[in-house]
Design brief:
22% of the residues lie in helices and 30% in strands. The chain is an alpha+beta fold.
Length: 138
């Protein structure tokens, strides 16, 4: 199911919001993706599969792979791709996961090397271990 809303501002920049197929329905008042001025903004993605199942009991590695799959689905649904990423922010509940995440991320990103931050946080929603948000070119 895709939601699409449009509005224009004084600069005639088109804003669209979408919830691409392959991602669970957002759990709050937000869209998975906002697109404007040729840029794609992906909301923080949690390790939740397309059916809405939260991977709370899964290993960090499985959670990280699901989050990155969600980011990729959001990018593709918006008409972008991993290769068009500008910045990625990763929130982890334990900085000790950084090396494992870096390996998983490197395989996922391939030749893409967008700006990136890995931020340790005390907790994430539903007791999950990782959240990722991203900005890309359309």
């Amino acid at each position: 199911m895709t939601q699409d809303s449009r509005s224009t501002d004084a600069a005639s920049a088109v804003l669209r919001t979408i919830n691409p197929a392959g991602l669970a329905t957002p759990g709050g008042h937000y869209s998975h993706v906002a697109i404007g001025n040729g840029m794609v903004f992906v909301s923080g993605q949690l390790p939740i599969d397309a059916s809405g199942r939260k991977l709370t009991e899964a290993s960090f590695e499985v959670q990280a792979q699901q989050v990155l799959a969600n980011v990729e689905a959001a990018l593709c649904g918006a008409g972008s791709s991993i290769g068009r990423l500008l910045q990625v922010r990763i929130y982890v509940t334990d900085v000790a996961h950084w090396p494992a995440f870096n390996d998983i991320y490197a395989r996922w990103a391939g030749d893409a090397r967008p700006a990136r931050a890995v931020v340790p946080v005390p907790a994430l929603h539903f007791g999950l271990q990782i959240e990722v948000e991203a900005t890309a070119l359309l």
